Amino acid sequence: MKIEVQLSSFIDEISMGPFGSDIKVENFVEDGVPVLNGANLLGYKLNDNSFNYVTLEKAKTFRKAIAKRGDIIITHRGTLGQICYVPENSKFEQYVISQSQFRVKFNEAKIDPRYIVYLFHTPYGQKKLLSFKSHVGVPALAQATTNFRALNILVHKLEDQKKIANVITAIEDKIELNNRINAELEQMAKTIYDYWFVQFDFPNADGKPYKSSGGKMVWSDELKREVPEGWEVVELSDIANITMGQSPPGSSYNEESDGMIFFQGCTDFGNRFPTIRKFTTEPTRYAKIGDILLSVRAPVGTMNIANNNCCIGRGLAALNSKDNCISYLFGVMTNLKQIFDRRNTDGTTFGSITKDDLYSLKVVRPTKPILESYNQLMNPSFLLQNELEGENQKLTELRDWLLPMLMNGQVKVGDVDDDQMTGIAAEPVEEYKVRGE
C-alpha cells in the first residue's frame, strides 16, 4: 500500500552547500574533512573516493553545510538528478557538501532515507526531482530546498520501505564487495608482474629472488638496461595476435540488437567489461570473447576484456596471447599503459597509436618455464576477476529491473528475508564468466 505525502513532514534538517567563495583551492589540505564533488554522488550511496580536504577548523565554519552518516545529498545545479545517502559505515563521520549540493536529514522513525534515495532513482522519482528545474542559464533546481520540501510523492508504509531498501542494499553491497575484491586482485597482479618482469626478482630454482640473489644479467641495447640471461627482447606482435579495429559504415549502426555487438572506442568501457550500446549489421574487424580490448586513441592504453564476440571500431585493437598466457599479456599491457600515462603527464600526449607503432613496442619475453610458472600463479586470479565482474553485470541488471518493479508494486518482497537475499546476490553467475585462452 502507498500513500501520498509531502516531504516536509519527514524532514528534520535541510541546508544548502557553502558559497563558492567560501571554499577556495588555497584552503585545501592533504588530510582532514573531505569536500564532496559530483563524482562522489554517482551511485545510490556516497562514493568514498577522490576528495579534496579542509581542516576541521575550516569545516566548522560551514556549520549547516556538513553532511553526516544517514544524510541524503542532492545536486541542485550542474548535473541534476544526482542523489545519494551517506551510509552508516562510511569512511568519514562528516563531509563538507559543495556549493552545487544540498543535504537533507530525514526523521528515520518516519521514513527510511535509503528508500527515499532508491525512489528518486526511478523514472517516477527523477521526474519529481527535476520538476522544478530552471531552464535559464546553468541547469539548476530553482529554490531547491524550498521546492524539495514541498514535493508530494507516493511512498510505501515504513515497514515495506525497509524491506525494499534491504533488498536493494543487499544487491548493492554484493556489487561493492566484488569491486573491492577485484581492486585488490588488480593491485596484487600489478605488484607481482613488477616483481617478476620489471625488477626481475622472480623465484629462481631455489625459490629465492633471481636478481637480488645474484642471478646472471645481460645488457639489452633495445631496452638500455640489463635483463636476465636467456630472456629475449621482442616486439609486442611476437607475443600477441593483434587486430586493429576498423569502423563499419555508419548506416549499419543500430541499438535494436540487429547484427553483431559493436564497440567504437573506450567510451563503452566499464570496470573490466564494456557496456553494450550499439550493434552493426556490417561488421569489419572482430574481437573474440576473452580478448584484451585496447584503446588506441586518446586515452591510449585504456583496457577492457571482451566478454562477447564483437566488432571493434577504429578506436580499439584486440589482443590475445600467442603463448596461451593471457594473464602475462594483460600484465604487459598494463605496464605499457603506465608508460603512456607517464608520457602524458610529461606533456607528450598520445592522441593515437598506429598499427606499426603498436606492433613494434619492445617487451621482454621470459623463458618458457618462467612464463608457465607465472601463468599457473596468476591465471586463477585473472579468471576470478572476470567472474566477479560478470556477476556484477548480472546483479546490476537485476537491481535496475527490480527497483522500479518494487516501487510500483509489480513485485513484492514477500517472505524473502535479508539473509536469503544476500545469498541470492552472492551466487556466481555462470553465463557471464570469461575463460582464458
Q: Describe it for me?
A:
The chain has ten helices and 25 strands. Helix content is about 35%, strand content about 20%. The longest helix has about 40 residues. Among the domains are: about 160 residues, Adenine-n6-DNA-methyltransferase TaqI, Chain A, domain 2 (Alpha-Beta Complex); about 150 residues, Alpha-Beta Complex (Adenine-n6-DNA-methyltransferase TaqI, Chain A, domain 2). α5 packs parallel to α10. A five-stranded mixed beta sheet has the order 17-19-18-23-20, with no helix packed on it. The relative contact order is 0.11. With about 425 residues, it is α+β, with helices and mostly antiparallel strands.
Key attributes of the depicted protein:
10 helices; five-stranded mixed sheet; 25 strands; globular; disordered C terminus; Adenine-n6-DNA-methyltransferase TaqI, Chain A, domain 2; alpha+beta; 437 residues; 21% strand
Estimated radius of gyration: 26 Å
CATH class of the domain at 2-156: Alpha Beta
Structural class: alpha+beta
What is the mean predicted local confidence, pLDDT?
90
Query: How many helices does DSSP assign?
Result: 10
Give the % helix. 25-40%
Low-confidence stretches: 428-437
Question: How widely separated are the two ends?
Answer: 52 Å
Which homologous superfamily in CATH is the superfamily of the domain at 2-156?
DNA methylase specificity domains
Which strand order do you get reading across the main beta sheet?
Answer: 17-19-18-23-20
Named at the architecture level, the CATH assignment of the domain at 2-156 is Alpha-Beta Complex
Outline type:
globular
Topology, number of strands = 25
- Main beta sheet: 5 strands, mixed
Report strand %.
Answer: 15-25%
CATH structural fold name of the domain at 2-156: Adenine-n6-DNA-methyltransferase TaqI, Chain A, domain 2
